[in-house]
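Notes from hallway chat w/ T.B., transcribed later so I don't forget. T.B. wanted the structure written out for a chain they're using in a teaching module, and asked if we could keep both sequence and structure tokens in one place. Agreed to drop them here.
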Amino acid sequence: MRSVEVERERPGLLTMSGPLFGRDAELAVVLGLLGDPGVRTVVLVGPSGVGKTKLALAACDASAFPLAVVVQLSAVREGDVMADALVLRIGASEALSERPADALWRAHGGDPVLLVLDNLEQVHGAADIVRELLEDYPAATVLATSVGDVGVPGERVVRLGPLPVPVEGSGNRATGFADDAPDFVDQGDEVSSMTALAPALQMFVERALRRDVTHPPSEADLLAAVRICRAVGGLPLAIELAAARAGSMSLQLMAAQLSEPTGLRLLDHAPAGAPERHRSLGAALTWTVDLLSPSAAVLLAALSVFEGPATLEAVASVAPPDVMALDVLSTLLDFSLVDVDAGDAEEPLFSLLPSVRTFASERLTSNGERPEALRRHDRYVRARCRTGRPLLPHEVADILAALDRAQLDGTSDAALELALQAARVTTAPGARASVATRVEGLLEVPGHDAVLASRALVWSVSHLPADVDDREAFAAWTLDRVHQAIRVARTSGDSGALLDALELTIRTLPLTLDMDLARAGIEEGLALAEHYGDPGRLARFRMWVGMANLSQGQVEHAEGLLLAAFAGGSAAGDRVAVDYSAVFLRAMGCTDSRVPSRPLPELQDLLESARRNHDGVAAAMALNQLISRALDAGDVRSAAEFTLQLLPIGAARVVVEPLPSATVLTVAVRVLVAARQWGAAAALQASLAPLDPLLRNALSRADYLAYIASVEGLGVGAATPGTGASSSAPPPLREAFRLAERTMARLVPPVEPRSAPAVTSLPASSQLTTREREVLLFLVDGAANREIADALGISSKTVMHHTVAIYRKLGVRGRTEAATWALRTGLTPSG
């Protein structure tokens, strides 16, 4: 293109010669807008140092405009000075009193002109100057750069963010390579291989190679460069400044320093000749923040206390009382200092770039506002934990930071209380492990309030790790911790704490194997719950005692306790009492007519509830009964499907709790025998032989008898006729689980996704609606409520209402009887 011969100021560090990295999509958008006759103003918006000027010049060079005028306005503050600068750059007159539009007419006589106006953000009245120019010179198009919107009517805004940085674990090196990318280090043509890298890494490597072309980066250098790009958040200015350091220090040292809280100070020096605002990262951010109102600057500094993204509620909680958070946050968004993510979250999340957060944090400290901002943050965290809602992933880091501050402040009871609050709302395994580590550290500090200490001990035992090196030592530690929790709870005088501790005696039984302690604990707990009139606890202890009686063959007594537990748990809203007692009552064949409170949940619904609540034990019990039902009906395939869901629950804790894991394998043996997989069944049964004396107590009497009946005649360690079983040593439990999983998988061929079946006619005597008939067909197929809901486009709750209506109209007691009725009456999917 032909450009007007005007003197261009040196555009700055970001407009140095070199390729434009990671901006192909944005460049295409800008060129498309510039080529649209209906668009007169295009504004590139982004934080200082993001590369707006470089993209603007690239668009200027690639556009179809025959004439272009580039005007650098970084030193201009007032609108009249801007008008004079435009007149001078247009170059048609020396009369500064002339209007820019008149100068354009004089110089170009109405021909199309592209005006590139760089750094409009600080010019007061810039929108008025641009609007007047466009009105009076119809052939002009403006391409402007600014940290925020300019405010010209009809302007189109293109927002620029940092360059994409390498994603953790992406590609074949975790350095941003694509999986099929060429090997950067091994190939001789380094630059051509750079196309395989993330844009931020491409830019860093290209800039670093300029400074030493004789030593291309090694694999270690690339890994360090990845860390550098992540530390600076992909901001192009920061990448330029870091690359400028590449000749004077190793990339590994630079990466280590940038990971420190004050590491970005390393980028406080730029090559000679760079504009003042681009000579350091701090200078670039100061340039932008100085344009803010005082309240916006204060809120920006306060936002630095967050460790990760924050909701609007969280942002408002750290704002000073006189700052209207929502209004001020809009300003920070306009200035591209705050990023917003409105993706999959229930509400938008606001965050700061790493460089902006470091800058804002230093401002918060220098202004003396950090202590009060942290106090507001801590109050928000405590209030958030008290809501009882599960923590979202982005909230975990802030919860842990507040917890660490409380511990460092020496307020150990406050820290322990916050840790327990956080524990109740923390569900992610990694986050829960972090909370557990802090709870353990706080428990080592003496002098805690007895109630807090007791509850912390109970929580620590209730969240045992999935695997340990020494099971016996871990079992001894657990038993000691249970005794300690009971002892401390007794001294506290808090009945709730003592009941929690007593409940541990049976919850930890699969690990401690201390039957005497468990019996004493649940009997004392039952008596205490009755004495204190605690309905939820009473229901739960009745359930535990009922389970114990059932395992000892005291069926009638067990049924009475479990019925009372189900009714009491339903009234008190105790999910554990309701779900566990319902599973056992279903296993005993208890009918709804014997349940006075409400109908027993179906096993599939109990399974869904257990999964929602991450309760592996309840899920295992429901699956066990579903497997038994399938075997009783001769449906081996369904039994194998359920067993495949059950096996991971047992395998997850095979080291710390071998007895529950062994009970899972007894179910697998029964399924394999029913499938006539004699060799695999014999191998599993052999692995269980050493635990057979314990299985008698671990399984209910009915389950144990069903297991024994299945394995009769298999033989332990001997070849079974026609099976090819070897006489080698039986596999350990871990290997047994793998064997069971492989064998079950062969029994369950791939299943096509379910679709809503067409319904044939039903006998006239039935009163089912069309929707109820569709639901009933899914029940025949063994679908869970969630599967039915997904297939029919309705909620699980609606499915539950339909199933209850089906049971009532057909006069049946559950899914099995409803499915049997449908099959006998000829209700089948058509076609």
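Follow-up for T.B.: The longest helix spans residues 471-492. Might be a good example for the class.
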